[in-house]
Fold this protein.
Amino acid sequence: MSGCFPKAERIFGRVCGHGARAVSVPRDRDIERLREHFRARDLFERRETSSFGKAGLDRLRDELAEFGGAEYEALYCQWRERGDCILGGGAESAEKRSGGFATYRVHHDYELFGELGRKIPA
């Protein structure tokens, strides 16, 4: 059963953050602008630039300088993995997204979970 713990921890980290590696989420007024920047950057990195034009490329260049740095890079990587949900919305100030993960082996029969509990030998 403990063989499932590492996989569960990886999934938790992908969904909830990685503790010390969690990043700040920007304030509401910046979220939509950052979301648009991430979308443009993603298109650029996938070489899908037919819709950009000179003004769009100039804006992307300026934004790459503005949104440079480790914190924005980490946020961009999380955005690519999980999408717009990591940018949140509705928070009035920056918040840290993080979580903790702990495993415990229980010695009870939880039949209510059906086949899930029977697939892994005790």
Notes: Residues 25-88 form one domain. The chain is about 45% helix and 5% strand. Confidence is low (pLDDT under 50) at residues 90-95.
